[in-house]
Design a protein that fits this description.
The structure is a homodimer of 525-residue chains.
Chain A (H helix, E strand, L loop, with lengths): L5 H17 L32 E3 L13 E2 L12 E14 L2 E8 L2 E8 L6 H8 L6 E10 L12 E12 L9 H4 L13 H6 L1 H4 L3 H23 L3 E2 L5 E2 L11 E4 L2 E5 L4 H9 L4 E9 L12 E10 L5 H21 L1 H10 L12 E4 H10 L12 H15 L3 E5 L23 E6 L2 E8 L4 H10 L8 H5 L8 E7 H9 L20
Chain lengths: 525, 525
């Protein structure tokens, strides 16, 4: 490999360095710069560039030397720092030159500050022109004075100050044409007449799209859902486990499973950690949770299906009744909702600006209805259905609206589902084992976000139920055998992280809460 | 589906229930029992069983009713509870009858207590016989008096008390023949002449194997590694992300990758979250980490390779020098080691009983050596090698021993690896870019546990390096494009959770720290 940039660096950086060293305020003596490639700021006879060495393109930062320089975060730029000279590193979001000055906006995640540079004793016309020419989205280092402003800068998060630049260096230049503009991608759909960005363009250019303050907020909140999930369960004495994603057989019925070439044979991708978390219960872990990839080969192109999502699953023993587990799940969700509401105020507000939604409402403890009560509500609303008939998606949504109207909650639990619509390992209801089951779904804004149940912990009965479901017992031998040597009664459930985030925030598409979504038609980026 | 057990339940449980209700101490009025199937405790004329209704097989717990009964954890059974009547639910580990009495050991995760039942006014011969006949590993409910003992029960964790049983009910019966015995599986290899269990038998019957106190401790400690990893990085302002496991191209060179059928086309399983975590850096997340499945189609049948493992990866921006990141990683590891040492004292001691190992030693801050210093140490020890030659596994281990001897640490960082042995996205060392790189490995007990580096954040240079490595640029277009629109300098690294756990505890095989290990020959259970 050739030394790609030491030539430039060796000759041109010294001048910049010299200038830099004069700046007694800074400890940045050792930075090595190269000058801008353009010609305008080349010294020409008398017309010497007074700003020489104060701007240009930095050599690629390759860890030449460690520089002990305080770089301020944009959020730190407040009137507390008035008249202080600071360094910042941020993206150039926009710039606008106007005669001898150039206004620009710097962005760092969700924070923005207005910058300003104008021709003067220390600032040359060439430098202002250079700044005005920096491509949007480039990362730049700016040194300047924090100045308070008489009128609030309404368009930025840092409204009381602006930054008067004296040095501007490009750390990493963006290409001149962006596939999408951050302003467009940040605009609510409701602002008619102005450009917005369609979903495929966003996803094709996800790295830029993710830079919007809305996306920064969505994924911070999603990390919060996951953190709260673990926090609550850790406090309840759960152990975190990791279950295999590559499995030997299509364990949950065989349909909708991805096949993997495994050396000379083949394997499958797990459709859930279900069987393994149960095996851990039988292996005496008592209370377990796991967060990890879940894979569904469903050819569903809807607003709420992904072929790969993040499952957050739990499973626990109970003593006498699966409602002991339901209580823990109830507490889990209420704690997640409270945690989001209290700790992510800013993120929720940020997302709401682009994607307005009613604040998420919940009760404590959560509303619990039996399946047949839900069906009764639907019937009352004119829907004709049997009380053990499966809920269609429209009916599920309608029920959500009915529940909201009656109980003023966006979250509720539907308990005692019909046995026929649940997986083979679901425990039948002892009071009517042919019709009902000890299973439940949780709903947010009228959409299902969790399915769970008491599981059958008796190997013989489990085998019998699997056979009834037409499952080849040999393919799940390891699972069934797990219950042959003593297994406690247990129940659990799992959520999709993306779906909970989507519904909590009232987003209209799960692709908005998946960093790099996967669906039947999308595998990139 | 038929009602499988309501017949039994309806007729037989009432007697048991009646007896139960008399027990004024207990609030267990509503429990429903069925009697033991055997004949010995059937009332026969005058020979009425005085213990009738105090023992037997419980009907499968199907959440009939919620019972408000305090069930004590075995660890709570101490002399504080002396002479108190308590209920416990635990596994029957062993039992031994001796005339009119039967001693047994109850186990709950890592806790054990001695139980005792003897023929008396309330306890029939039949009942003692029933208890003696319960299969090992069955889960049983026992009610009895906690009694202090004059001589410590050396074989149990609860040494000051034993439990004098008055009721014994089988919650879930184990089959009579166990594929392996917990005692055998718990024995150190050093105890000659006594049975131990070989690895394949263990893994074939993993659910039972995992019940040993050693395994309970290993996986609790592993959860601790993960928790500490997140805790430290959360405190440093990192955001947790989730990267896709199904990817469109074999991104990191093409070899050793699992192929997946993806609807009508095909896809691959990610060999690391590398590219995606970097894309998140370019998407302004600044500091990210992710924990998730990592897949390697390597046909390596060694003590330290798995085809699927849990990767805990981080990536972060830095200002001037990748050592800013190395400092965070250093702190991360020191914090993990301290956290394990301080919070998992018992687990470490438990594992050490079966698998003795020297306590893990580390320095604060960690020892850092340059690659060439490591090579110099090896040369001094008689190894002939070039200073930029790759480290063979034996040399890696030897270096670990040399470092331990010289610096008394089991953990160290080797910095500035030869460029030639690193992936295409590694940043060359600016001082000798043809030979060295800004990359590092971390070692525990002489084995590599983390590889990391400053990454190339310049799209053109990245493309150039990828081409030099013979990578088809089209297959990683999304990745390279991620750096075209401004990207900050960044570095990171990733660990395998199983390997860190194995080496921290000094285990000899990574299959000991993977719940359900996957290797070229093992896909089940």
């Amino acid at each position: 490999m050739d030394n790609m940039d030491s030539g430039d660096e060796g000759q041109l950086s010294k001048k910049a360095l010299k200038k830099q060293q004069k700046d007694a305020e800074k400890a940045a003596k050792k930075a090595q710069y190269k000058k801008q490639d353009g010609k305008e700021n080349e010294p020409k006879g008398d017309d010497k560039d007074v700003s020489e060495g104060c701007y240009g393109d930095l050599v690629m930062i390759q860890s030449r030397e460690r520089i002990d320089r305080k770089i301020y975060a944009l959020k730190e730029l407040t009137s507390d720092l008035a008249d202080k000279k600071v360094w910042v590193r941020a993206r150039l979001q926009t710039s606008r030159s106007k005669g001898k000055q150039c206004f620009f906006v710097l962005r760092q995640q969700k924070w923005t500050v207005q910058g300003l540079i104008y021709v003067g004793d220390k600032i040359s016309k060439q430098m202002v022109k250079f700044v005005a020419g920096i491509h949007k989205e480039s990362i730049i280092d700016v040194e300047g004075y924090v100045r308070t402003v008489s009128q609030k800068v309404e368009s930025c998060t840092q409204q009381d100050v602006e930054l008067h630049a004296e040095q501007v260096w490009v750390v990493s230049a963006a290409e001149p044409r962006l596939p999408l503009l951050i302003e467009d991608a940040s605009r609510p759909d409701s602002e008619e007449g102005l450009a917005t960005v369609n979903q495929d363009t966003r996803l094709d250019n996800r790295v830029i799209d993710l830079r919007t303050t809305t996306n920064q907020a969505i994924f911070r909140l999603e990390a919060g859902v996951c953190k709260l999930f673990r926090e609550v369960l850790d406090n309840e004495g759960f152990v975190e486990i990791h279950t295999p994603k590559i499995i030997s057989a299509a364990s949950e019925g065989g349909a909708n499973v991805f096949k993997v070439s495994y050396f000379k044979g083949s394997a499958y991708l797990a459709q859930s950690p279900q069987l393994y978390k149960q095996m851990c219960i039988s292996a005496d872990f008592e209370k377990v949770y796991t967060v990890g990839g879940v894979f569904r080969a469903e050819d569903s192109n809807t607003h709420r299906h992904l072929t790969e999502f993040v499952g957050a699953d739990m499973e626990m023993c109970f003593n006498y009744h699966y409602h002991e587990v339901l209580d823990v799940l109830d507490k889990l969700f209420v704690s997640i909702f409270k945690g989001l509401r209290d700790r992510y105020v800013e993120e929720i507000a940020t997302v709401g600006k682009q994607y307005p939604a009613e604040p998420f409402k919940f009760l404590e403890p959560s509303l619990r209805l039996e399946y047949k009560e839900g069906v009764a509500m639907l019937r009352e609303a004119g829907i004709e259905m049997e009380d053990d008939e499966d809920l269609s998606t429209p009916n599920e949504k309608l029920l959500g609206r009915l529940v909201k109207a009656k109980y003023d909650t966006d979250f509720y639990i539907l308990d005692k589902f019909p046995l026929a619509v649940r997986p083979f390992y679901t425990m039948p209801d002892p009071n009517n084992p042919a019709k009902w089951s000890n299973s439940y779904d949780f709903f947010m804004r009228g959409e299902e976000i969790m399915s769970g149940a008491q599981r059958i912990h008796d190997a013989k009965f489990l085998e019998e139920r699997a056979k009834l479901h037409g499952i080849d017992i040999e393919t799940i031998k390891g699972y069934i055998d797990a219950f042959r040597y003593g297994a406690p009664p247990h129940a659990g459930g799992g959520i999709g992280l993306e779906r909970v985030t989507m519904l909590y925030l009232g987003l209209d598409n799960i692709r908005k809460s998946s960093l790099f979504p996967r669906d039947p038609k999308r595998l990139t980026p």
